[in-house]
Amino acid sequence: MAKPATTVDDQKAVEAHVPQKELGPVFKAASGPARWADERLGIATLSRPFIRKVFPDHWSFLLGEIALYSFIILLITGTFLSFWYKPSMAEIEYEGTYQLLRGVSMSESYASTLALSFDIRGGLLVRQMHHWAAALFLAAMLAHSLRVFFTGAFRKPREINWVIGVAMLMMGLIEGFAGYSLPDDLLSGTGLRFVDGLVRSIPLIGTWAEFFVFGGEFPGSLIVSRLYIVHVLLLPAIILGLIAAHLALVVYHKHTQFPGPGRNEGNVVGYPVFPVYAAKAGGFFFIVFGLLTLMGGLMQINPVWTYGPYNPAEVTAGSQPDWYMGFVEGGIRIMPNWEWHLGGTTWSWNVAIPGLGLMGLFFGLMAVYPFIEQWVTKDKSEHHIADRPRNAPTRTAFGVAAMTCYGMLWIGGGNDLVATQFRVSLNAVTYFLRVAVFVAPVLAFIITKRICIGLQRADEERLLHGAETGVIERDPSGSYSERHAPISVGEAYTLTQHKQLPALLPAQDGDVKAKEMRIEQLRRRATRFYFQDDLRKPTRAELEEAQHHGHDDDHALTAGHEGNGSSNGHHSITAGTQQNVTHQ
């Protein structure tokens, strides 16, 4: 007869019974210094909660990682470039390797950029890696912010983290433009002239602001050295601080996760940071690094030697800014020529509104949207389960409308190239975009919302009738129908896990105080705009009726086609949705 296992209450006795693992030679060599540091700094105690932190495993979460890794690569490549770059606008005569510019007068900053491109071993590779990493950094941040927006991951308790992300994106745009302007070639100088116009368009103080920024009349002799300090010191420090705060809040609030079986607002289903996530993240960093190295070596970007040194009297034909600043230039290009002349001053609304106002409106709306939605819904609960975009059709439609508006402005930033490439009138392109920038977002909003509601109907059909199999059957009466297969319990749970908020009727007298009635009526009208068209999830009664109907169909089909094995699968879905429906 087998004896029961021995139970040990003493923890030390338990540890004594656990066999000690033999460490390899590398870990044995590292254990001594690690133990010494831990005894003095408590590294293991401090890091234990973090390394056991669980993160969900979904491809969309890699977008934020790409942004982080791109920034690290920017710091590495930027440090290399700073060893040889000279942030000076002092005039010299070029005597470097590039023969076509020998003897040409240029600034030291442009000459040092040419030296990095032709005379420093690996300089051109690192310079192009730096430029590609900057473009990838901003693209990844923008894509990451779209993922957060469309899934509702900005809701409580992550509103502050969303605002930090918006500030990070804004700092990234300014940082990218500052770096773009440092070579002092003809293209970057044209971009600086663009900024000079923005600064001067500030009402009343524009001229004084220009003299303050440029150290005199444009282009002055200080702007490159000032931009260099902003680019390598001030903005990187701010972005590093924002990244640290952003990551700290991610750890504190825990990560959002997509709906699915076993996932709720109180847990996170995924892998711990160490060893699984650390290994994945480390490998992914080297993938990003390798890809940027290939891009820097094989894909030319910003060939400054073809533009020549900056001359305020010259402009590069067909000049375009980096993609992330294209929407601002597009706004200015398609803006009508509106100006005021008051008391000897000129108010250049044709530059100030699309240039300064557009960026303020863009980032301002991004920052306040979580609070607007929270005011509409009055939803104070915490949200750790991400929404499927189709289940928030109005929010998704707003996002697509904003992307469409951004796209129209982006096209406007290259309206001259559009006109020449497609052989159409430049004026026709401009007039079209002046209308499209307002009409296209409205159309995109309507179409996107209808698509989301259509996808909701497809989910409802899948819940109530199962998955389509493509198998067509004919019953004894001669009619045809498609066989449906049962969906899994996990899929049924995923399709019904989201919360639904009501569209409120107008407030009646006595519902709220008289002085608050107007605001409450506005809020309730907003709830109807947000939620009135949403498709309601099937109730428990509807699911049970579908189950019962499925059994009846199965019996009828069996009687008419005994042995044909047909089934529509309704009986399988109630177990997957019952728990969620009872929570409503």
From TrEMBL:
<keyword id="KW-0812">Transmembrane</keyword>
<dbReference type="InterPro" id="IPR005797">
    <property type="entry name" value="Cyt_b/b6_N"/>
</dbReference>
<feature type="domain" description="Cytochrome b/b6 C-terminal region profile">
    <location>
        <begin position="260"/>
        <end position="454"/>
    </location>
</feature>
<keyword id="KW-1003">Cell membrane</keyword>
<dbReference type="InterPro" id="IPR016174">
    <property type="entry name" value="Di-haem_cyt_TM"/>
</dbReference>
<dbReference type="GO" id="GO:0008121">
    <property type="term" value="F:quinol-cytochrome-c reductase activity"/>
</dbReference>
<keyword id="KW-1133">Transmembrane helix</keyword>
<keyword id="KW-1278">Translocase</keyword>
<feature type="transmembrane region" description="Helical">
    <location>
        <begin position="162"/>
        <end position="182"/>
    </location>
</feature>
<feature type="compositionally biased region" description="Polar residues">
    <location>
        <begin position="574"/>
        <end position="584"/>
    </location>
</feature>
<feature type="transmembrane region" description="Helical">
    <location>
        <begin position="431"/>
        <end position="448"/>
    </location>
</feature>
<keyword id="KW-0679">Respiratory chain</keyword>
<keyword id="KW-0813">Transport</keyword>
<feature type="transmembrane region" description="Helical">
    <location>
        <begin position="392"/>
        <end position="411"/>
    </location>
</feature>
<keyword id="KW-0408">Iron</keyword>
<dbReference type="InterPro" id="IPR005798">
    <property type="entry name" value="Cyt_b/b6_C"/>
</dbReference>
<feature type="transmembrane region" description="Helical">
    <location>
        <begin position="61"/>
        <end position="85"/>
    </location>
</feature>
<dbReference type="GO" id="GO:0046872">
    <property type="term" value="F:metal ion binding"/>
</dbReference>
<feature type="transmembrane region" description="Helical">
    <location>
        <begin position="347"/>
        <end position="372"/>
    </location>
</feature>
<dbReference type="GO" id="GO:0022904">
    <property type="term" value="P:respiratory electron transport chain"/>
</dbReference>
<dbReference type="InterPro" id="IPR027387">
    <property type="entry name" value="Cytb/b6-like_sf"/>
</dbReference>
<keyword id="KW-0479">Metal-binding</keyword>
<keyword id="KW-0472">Membrane</keyword>
<dbReference type="GO" id="GO:0005886">
    <property type="term" value="C:plasma membrane"/>
</dbReference>
<feature type="domain" description="Cytochrome b/b6 N-terminal region profile">
    <location>
        <begin position="33"/>
        <end position="259"/>
    </location>
</feature>
<feature type="transmembrane region" description="Helical">
    <location>
        <begin position="228"/>
        <end position="252"/>
    </location>
</feature>
<protein>
    <recommendedName>
        <fullName>Cytochrome bc1 complex cytochrome b subunit</fullName>
        <ecNumber>7.1.1.8</ecNumber>
    </recommendedName>
</protein>
<dbReference type="GO" id="GO:0016491">
    <property type="term" value="F:oxidoreductase activity"/>
</dbReference>
<keyword id="KW-0349">Heme</keyword>
<dbReference type="Pfam" id="PF13631">
    <property type="entry name" value="Cytochrom_B_N_2"/>
</dbReference>
<feature type="compositionally biased region" description="Basic and acidic residues">
    <location>
        <begin position="543"/>
        <end position="556"/>
    </location>
</feature>
<feature type="compositionally biased region" description="Low complexity">
    <location>
        <begin position="560"/>
        <end position="572"/>
    </location>
</feature>
<keyword id="KW-0249">Electron transport</keyword>
<feature type="transmembrane region" description="Helical">
    <location>
        <begin position="132"/>
        <end position="150"/>
    </location>
</feature>
<feature type="transmembrane region" description="Helical">
    <location>
        <begin position="273"/>
        <end position="299"/>
    </location>
</feature>
<feature type="region of interest" description="Disordered">
    <location>
        <begin position="543"/>
        <end position="584"/>
    </location>
</feature>
